[in-house]
Queue: 4 jobs
Job 1
Amino acid sequence: KSRTINKLMINEEQIFYSDSTLNVDRENLQLKNCVVFSTSINKNNEFEFIPENLSEIVSLGNAGEVKSYINHARGLIEKRVGSWIPGSFRIDGDFVKADLQLSEVNDVNPELKPEYNDFVLTLAEKEPTKCGFSTVMIVGTKDGEPTIKKLYSIDLVETPALTLAMFSKKEEMEMEEKEAGKLKTIVKSIA
């Protein structure tokens, strides 16, 4: 048995916060607080990233336009999601977060762009843990440590190597705890 109250789901054994719309701005076609790089998650890369790499990603991301594609389809305009907003790259613990501006046009097939953006925004709202962002970069070494030389794109993929989901798991857990407290108050007032 379950029911929905103010976007909070009550389940007999668990309490879930089921709204990630805080990170989705449909009006401005933006995704906010996206996790784009991490030093604590490394599923299949040859490098063990270090804290200095966070600053390198932030500097490269804030220096100019970094595009985003679906599944690393770099160079295919119809697969372009948008561009990362310069100045929005920032360090949050062992993550780099940034804000994504979705493209308003698709030069190859303009009539599909609104549907395409709606797909990306809905995915972010309803299933942000089912995909994430993957950083396409050139990594070198200096004194035996990895160094980020160039940032090509940060793409939306189903299985990212350096992140767990679109938005920080830590952030989601803190939100769940906060909303669980509110929910208990709501449930007591209903009962």
Job 2
Amino acid sequence: VVPLQRAGIAVAWPALQALGAVAGVRTTDAAGLHAVGFADGTMVVVGATCAGASSVLGVGLVLGSTSCVLRGTTRQKATWVLAGAAIALVGNILRLCVLLLVGVVTSPSAALRFVHPVAGVVVTLGATAVSLALSPRFGLEVPRRPTHRVDERLARCAPRRITVATAVAIAVAASANVAYASIWQLDRLGGS
């Protein structure tokens, strides 16, 4: 498990345990697996792909590239990107809690079939929108009249930042492929 995924689960699991205790759902943490047991007998494993790492990285990539165009110091931009990643992580915790509640109120099947497929995208888009709206609070601003052409401004970000962004994009793509391969493998083992 990738450290970011491990951290995402470590942060989200206590919230799920607390909510599960209040909602009457059993939670268990055995042999390195985190699982939620519903009253109808359905057991849902909260795995590494549930950690929200893709949301955190997605928001980080969007905000990182946007920071090249915004006016502000490198420290302000880095703080803003990290805050956006934290917002995405908190959003993922809320996503998992909503899934648990939908599973309790309706059924685990409804939560997994109807809410789960779109919840991650909604969290990522929401975290990105909130972060963009908060950019002025971090001292960042969109240049009113660019003193240089945008392509010249982006060229100043290169080559070091573009190299880092490319490496991060490759890592994100590779992680997504691993996640999809894992899901495919679970489907082959009898998942729905």
Job 3
Amino acid sequence: NCLALIFHLLKQKILNVAHIANSQKFAEEKSLIQIFKPFNSTIFMAVKYLIDKILITLEVAEKTALLIALTKDGQIHRKGNGNATNTTLQLAQGFSSDGHFEALMMTVDESIFHYAGIINEPEKAGKECRLTIVFQGGNGLDYSFRVLYGENSQGPPAELVKVLVNAVAITEPWYQQQLNPERQKKWWQFWK
């Protein structure tokens, strides 16, 4: 059983061995300082389906500009919109049966899990930014990405930007509804 093999390897911490490597996919876009890569990438075909929590944070000049946490059971936590100049970030927390977690996971490319780790852009232009994306599942499953870059630099790899942009787009209607509950339409006002 493929899942049993994955859990067995995770328990032995074989998959958590870190080494310096150049990622085929990210090396084209970034100079990598440290990247974590599994020994046998064929084992990771179904990792996406083992994940049940996602945390995304964007910090600009050591201030949180965006925080999104989603769980498979419907929990949503969101603070901010990514704008670092906004000083009044409001936190919205709750549950939703609208499938935000599933919608985001459908947009995640399975291949990114082969390259979890830290990307540190050596020449940062502008304010320092830090994008962190953490995917977690049962039995200690954890794939974390941290990208350190300058506000006016090239930025994170396109695959990670896609996760960030999709998370914002998928949670935006829910977030706006939580911040402005009086703007919620009545059931008979479907045309508005």
Job 4
Amino acid sequence: YEIYTNFKRRNIEKNWILFEIQKKELAIYSHSPKLDIVKLNLHNKKKYASQYKSFNYNNFFWEKKYGEIRGGAGVFEYNKYYISIFQSSIKTIKGLIYNTGLLVMDKKNLKPMLISKRPILNYTNLSNDLFIKENILNKQAYRAVYPTGYINNGNHLYISYGVNDYMFGISLFNINSLMKDMIKLEVHDKYD
């Protein structure tokens, strides 16, 4: 397969989030600096992804505080929304700190509408004892807590996560509570 490389921020985005809605196989190619969603054609060996939707939106407050948004654990349906579980990382003097947040998209057109005010999952949610072991797989990571999967069970959201590339955990969240802790996004342009 050829790599999809039509975006300017980096040549190749490796953290795609695959999901399916209304029998369309899609992927969030990039959350930032704009939301780029591609349509998948997994049977076409020459070009298996093409641009589907793209939105410029203001997420700079998140990136300034919690780092560049990249990849995540998936997209799930909730009421009139699709919600993406994303990860970000920010450089500190001691190394990278990873954070998990939510991006809420309108169910009709996937337009980004809301973003978490603060990380729903990061090292501050966990015991310091989990970080005693050095991250031997990623020497740049200082406090790596990253989402790896989810189960949406009504109003309960279970998110699985990795810790410093050597430990696994699961956290339970109330989706209604998470939805109350969001910031409205300003969308500047929309391209279909």
